[in-house]
Amino acid sequence: MIKLKPRTPVFADKGYASAENDEVLIIKKLKNRILYKAVKNKPLTELEKRINKTISQTRYKVERTFGSISRWFKVSGARYVGKAKTHSQQLIQAISYNLYRIPIIEAV
Predict the structure, then answer these.
(1) Residue 43 C-beta-side C-alpha neighbours within 13 Å
(2) CA gap 11, 49 in Å, rounded
(3) Can you give the residue ranges of every domain in the chain?
(4) Which of 23, 29, 34, 47 is the S-S candidate for 6 at Cβ 3.0 to 4.6 Å?
């Protein structure tokens, strides 16, 4: 399990929005950066929409990398079984992504 320092922001999408997750973050003294989720007959307030937009601007920087890897290398999930093999696959994808982004290689 990963040990985070207190006051570390935890970013997540709406799928993780729950009272249980909010409680865990409070207990572990972590900053909650989980997007707000509208529920039936209770739309988001203007403040919640602005907070979601601010959180999304940070999450976008990370998510676009995963999206680019999926598009460029046709990756949709883990190909191997087991932590070590899956980790190796992800490392190779990250290295490939960084090499692909080098302008000199794009020109060749």
Answers:
(1) 3
(2) 16
(3) 1-59
(4) 29
Q: Apex CA 10: angle with CA 93 and CA 101, to 5°?
A: 25
Range list of H helices, the chain: 19-27, 46-73, 83-100, 103-107
Which residue(s) pair with 12 in the sheet?
Answer: 34
Query: How high is the pLDDT of residue 73?
Result: 86
Tokens of 43: 């739309």
Residue 55, number of CB atoms within 10 A of its CB: 19
- 79: which strand partners? none
Mean pLDDT of 3-32: 94
CA 102 to CA 105: how far, in whole Å?
Answer: 6
pLDDT, average across residues 38-67: 93
User: Helix (H, G, I), strand (E, B), or coil: what is residue 15?
Assistant: helix
What pTM value is reported for the model? 0.69
Beta pairing partners, 9:
31
Q: 29, 6 in Cβ contact below 8 A? A: yes
